[in-house]
Design goal:
This protein is of the alpha+beta class and 409 residues long. Helices cover 47% and strands 22% of the residues. It is built from ten helices and twelve strands. Helix 5 packs antiparallel against helix 6, helix 7 packs parallel to helix 8 and helix 8 runs antiparallel to helix 10. It is elongated. The chain starts with a helix and ends in a 10-residue tail after the last strand.
């Protein structure tokens, strides 16, 4: 078609009106075919010029991205694409690519539809080349919700497999108390049977009470085992979206920084990345608040001065320090949460995530178990390093969104 049009333009002055009319009809037909192809694609397509000003798009791009105005009303080349995209994360991504002159880039985003459901979009930016020169960008918008949900399903199935091992351990733990209960009930039954054979003379009161006390203790033990098991297997109700953890953590820290400072504890939040990962904002807040309050307790335990409120006019460095640092290593998103508190023994570190295990007089022993469950729900890992008298570091690692398409750098 391109060669045909080139030849026609070279000889256009020799064509009659009828020939020109026929030529225009042919070209209109070709344009219709082109438009049909654009509208038939499963991916949304947006074409922009070198400055990222909108030139053309298909309908599915409008359905997948929320725009602040109808694109049919937009004059081609008159408006920057990021100015008419409603979602701030996507708009910032497009604007950032424009400012950096990015040639190839791709990133995943989560958007909330009108009915409240969460959809995941992969936005890929490719060069638009004409006569060996780059004249703009082609932006592809793919809906990857099904793939994300499938990945989440696989993750939860893996968790179910882990629950099988947990259930096996639970069955073993239940077996011993049940055996003890059975033995002591049999002893009571034999004593009662012997009493009937001996003119209903009952055994000594203490004898029966001892057996009943053991039975009650084992029943209580069983009850604790069941409650721990139910807590461990109860699913976390997470709504995962692509979010920037560093930004969320900074906002969360604003709620407790004043309290920490009042008790002579400094708060440092640092980040070397604006990468987004799959998480639930509400549950991330629960993780950070739990770890921060544990850190404050540990710092107060090491430094008695931190139990006394610091006067507002006091100056100088803080005695206690609580730090959160966000970074990436190319494969994982890493959040390091540290304090210079009293630290923990090796035994405490090894049991810290167990349900109902606590070193606090008024602790429930459920906080760190919930932290562990939430991190696992985000497909992450959590590790603990601690030295008594020096402090503790929690390292949380989460998978980065990986694009299937290998892009040129």
């Amino acid at each position: 078609m391109r060669g045909y049009v080139k030849k026609i333009t070279q000889k256009i002055d020799k064509f009659s009106r009828e020939q020109l009319s026929s030529l225009l009809e042919d070209m209109a037909g070709e344009i219709e075919n082109y438009d049909s192809i654009m509208e038939s694609l499963s991916a949304g397509i947006v074409i922009v010029d070198k400055d990222y000003k909108l030139i053309q798009n298909n309908r599915i791009a409008e359905r997948r991205l929320n725009f602040t105005q109808h694109l049919d009303e937009t004059v081609p080349g008159s408006v920057y694409l990021w100015e008419i995209i409603e979602d701030s994360d996507i708009a910032d991504f497009i604007k950032n690519c424009a400012q950096k002159g990015t040639t190839n880039s791709a990133e995943d985003f989560s958007v909330v539809s009108e009915n409240g459901s969460v959809r995941f979009l992969n936005i890929q930016i490719n060069p638009l080349v004409k006569k060996c020169d780059m004249c703009g960008r082609v932006i592809l918008i793919r809906d990857v919700t099904d793939k994300k949900n499938q990945d989440l399903l696989v993750h939860r199935m893996e968790n179910m497999a882990n629950l099988t091992n947990l259930a096996a351990g639970m069955a073993h733990d239940i077996k011993n108390p049940l055996g003890a209960i059975s033995i002591h009930i049999q002893l009571v039954q034999k004593a009662l049977q012997k009493a009937r054979e001996n003119n209903d003379k009952l055994p000594a009161k203490k004898f029966v009470e001892d057996h009943i006390d053991v039975v009650n203790e084992e029943i209580e033990h069983l009850n604790r085992l069941v409650m721990d098991f139910l807590f461990a297997v109860r699913p976390v109700n997470a709504t995962l979206q692509l979010k920037n953890p560093a930004l969320l953590i900074k906002n969360i820290a604003e709620f407790f920084t004043a309290e920490f400072n009042r008790f002579n504890v400094g708060v440092e939040i640092t980040s070397s990345t604006d990468q987004r990962i799959m998480l639930d904002e509400k549950l991330l807040r629960e993780v950070i608040m739990n770890l921060s309050q544990n850190a404050l307790s540990a710092i107060k335990s090491r430094f008695p001065e931190c139990n006394i409120e610091r006067k507002s006019e006091e100056q100088g460095a803080f005695l206690g320090l609580f730090k959160i640092d966000c970074s990436t290593d190319g494969i994982k998103y890493v959040i390091k949460i540290s304090d210079n508190g009293c630290g923990m023994s090796n035994q405490t570190v090894s049991r810290i995530f167990e349900p109902y295990y606590t070193t606090k007089a008024n602790g429930t022993g459920l906080g760190m178990t919930m932290v562990y469950k939430i991190v696992k729900e985000f497909s992450g890992e959590i590790q603990v390093e601690s030295q008594e008298g020096r402090g503790t570091i929690f390292t949380l690692t989460f998978p980065l969104p990986q694009d299937n398409t290998k892009l040129l750098k």
